[in-house]
């Protein structure tokens, strides 16, 4: 099936007629093509957005909210269809796409449909000076949203929904590796009555289409989720142009387990935080640190639980671990497993490719547990972004905290303990944007979401996102 760009409410082929193959990772075969868009396509999208902006900026909040709600309803109506498309495009289990990805895409629209009606400007009475200040929060104009392949519709809509709710017009690019549900979203937006040009979806490679979006002088802000290297490159172009930037980048998140935790709950959640979505979530707890007194027990129980996970074709409902997203990514992840031999570490479970019946060319890999002795090893310092976790023991709170913070990344951390004092000490001293205690990936869309250090800058979610997609302008009136 051939995907097209969605520009000015129309589905258009790329101007230069260049196309890229789209793969089904479950079987390792091409199943369609997507536009390899050029600067000219991006220019056309920007023109459409500029034309739509004067009307969209004056559309009432109630009307914007109604359209966003309608998009959310339509996503839910088409849940099974969208989940099947997402699973085929990405390799993730259909059960996960149905339970998480597509419902969350709908929630993103519903959440910002509501949030925009509650977003308000601030006012400051300058007492004694006979003046009043108030701050307008005006949409930026045309903004760029660039999203990755791991949670395709989930993250694409996480950016688009607040951007359009706040009154901007959007040029959006999904990952060229997983473009399908973004394409289908275009149809949904038209059906929901989103005016043409408010959302424009341009498909193509990061280095050409993505780069053209970042470089375009009329695009005022870039909201990006993806790899840290790419984020740094985008910043090097956008920062000198004084664009607003939100960068949600990689992670190497610690999962710190103390002996006083609720063990069964921890074990079950740790399996999920390690291997959900084939470990391809920036929030996955890929470095597991376990208190020495329960280390051997944890090791045995964790290996047992992980060995019960079914690696299989993502379209089967009992599959726990589907295919990795691409051949190139499979090779990258495998290269890290191969490092184990060089780094004085031991593979406790997994480490090999899996051949799935009738899908022999699919990109399957066993969930893999590696025991490491030193947090400085590359396996513990570099983002693998696959079904690979390391485990290591610690003795004291201080040691655990040092290990957790000893990384260039700072996205999230998970802490398992029932000790309140320890919880507060870690909460204050972990160098991450998010700390989960006795849970993982429990999401409340109002909360600030993002990382410190090489995990990025800015926060998504709730009013933080609406603030990012608006420019504050202060008005001071003397009376
Ligand atoms: N959410 C996360 O934290 C993610 C992290 N990654 C990490 O990054 C590594 C590389 O994965 P990639 O697929 O190469 O991710 P990437 O960071 O290159 O891709 C993310 C998005 O950025 C676009 N992009 C790439 N280069 C660009 C440029 N110069 N200008 C504008 N847009 C550009 C891509 O087309 C895609 O839409 C992964 O192995 C993983 O470690 C990848 C995806 C998501
Ligand atoms: O917003 C969320 O709930 C999750 C976001 C996950 C990512 O940004 C990621 O994996 O890249």
Automatic annotation (TrEMBL):
One Pfam family recorded for the sequence: Aldedh
GO molecular function, one term: oxidoreductase activity, acting on the aldehyde or oxo group of donors, NAD or NADP as acceptor
PROSITE patterns reported in the protein's UniProt record: ALDEHYDE_DEHYDR_CYS, ALDEHYDE_DEHYDR_GLU
Domain Aldehyde dehydrogenase: 20-475
The keyword ATP-binding is annotated on this UniProt entry: no
Similarity comment text for this entry: Belongs to the aldehyde dehydrogenase family.
Full protein name: 2-hydroxymuconic semialdehyde dehydrogenase
């Amino acid at each position: 099936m051939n995907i097209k760009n969605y520009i000015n409410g129309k589905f258009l082929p790329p101007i230069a007629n260049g196309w890229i193959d789209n793969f089904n990772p479950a079987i390792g075969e091409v199943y369609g093509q997507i536009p390899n868009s050029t600067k000219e396509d991006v220019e056309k999208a920007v023109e459409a957005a500029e034309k739509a902006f004067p009307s969209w900026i004056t559309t009432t909040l109630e009307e914007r909210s109604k359209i966003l709600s309608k998009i959310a309803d339509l996503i839910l109506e088409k849940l099974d269809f969208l989940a099947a498309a997402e699973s085929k495009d990405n390799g993730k289990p259909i059960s996960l796409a149905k339970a998480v990805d597509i419902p969350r895409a709908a929630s993103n629209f519903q959440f910002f449909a509501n949030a925009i009606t509650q977003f308000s400007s601030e006012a400051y009475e300058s007492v004694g000076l006979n003046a009043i200040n108030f701050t307008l929060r005006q949409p930026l104009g045309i903004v760029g949203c660039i999203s990755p392949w791991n949670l395709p519709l989930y993250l694409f809509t996480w950016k688009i929904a607040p951007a359009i709710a706040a009154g901007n017009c959007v040029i959006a690019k999904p990952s060229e590796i997983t473009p399908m549900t973004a394409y289908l979203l275009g149809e949904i937006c038209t059906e929901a009555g989103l005016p043409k040009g408010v959302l424009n979806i341009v498909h193509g490679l990061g280095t050409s289409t993505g780069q053209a979006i970042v470089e375009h002088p009329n695009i005022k802000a870039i909201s990006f989720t993806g790899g840290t290297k790419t984020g740094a490159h985008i910043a090097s172009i956008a920062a000198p142009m004084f664009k607003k930037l939100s960068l949600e980048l990689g992670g190497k998140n610690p999962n710190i387990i103390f002996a006083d935790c609720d063990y069964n709950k921890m074990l079950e959640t740790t399996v999920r935080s390690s291997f959900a979505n084939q470990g391809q979530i920036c929030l996955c707890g890929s470095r597991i640190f376990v208190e020495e007194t329960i280390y051997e027990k944890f090791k045995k129980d964790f290996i047992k639980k992980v060995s019960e996970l079914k690696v299989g074709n993502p379209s089967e409902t009992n599959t726990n671990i589907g295919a990795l997203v691409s051949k190139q990514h499979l090779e990258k992840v495998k290269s890290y497993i191969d490092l184990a031999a060089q780094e004085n570490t031991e593979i406790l479970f997994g480490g090999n490719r899996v051949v799935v019946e009738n899908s022999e060319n699919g990109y399957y890999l066993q969930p893999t547990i590696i025991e490491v002795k030193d947090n400085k090893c590359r396996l513990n310092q570099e983002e693998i972004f696959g079904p690979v976790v390391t485990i290591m023991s610690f003795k004291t709170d201080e040691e655990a905290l040092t290990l957790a913070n000893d990384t260039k990344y700072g996205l999230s951390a998970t802490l398992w303990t029932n000790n309140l004092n320890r919880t507060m000490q870690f909460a204050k001293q972990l160098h991450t944007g998010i700390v989960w205690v006795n849970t993982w990936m429990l999401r409340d869309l109002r909360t600030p979401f993002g990382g410190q250090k090489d995990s990025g800058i800015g926060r998504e979610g709730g009013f933080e996102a609406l603030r990012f997609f608006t420019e504050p302008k202060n008005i001071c009136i003397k009376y």
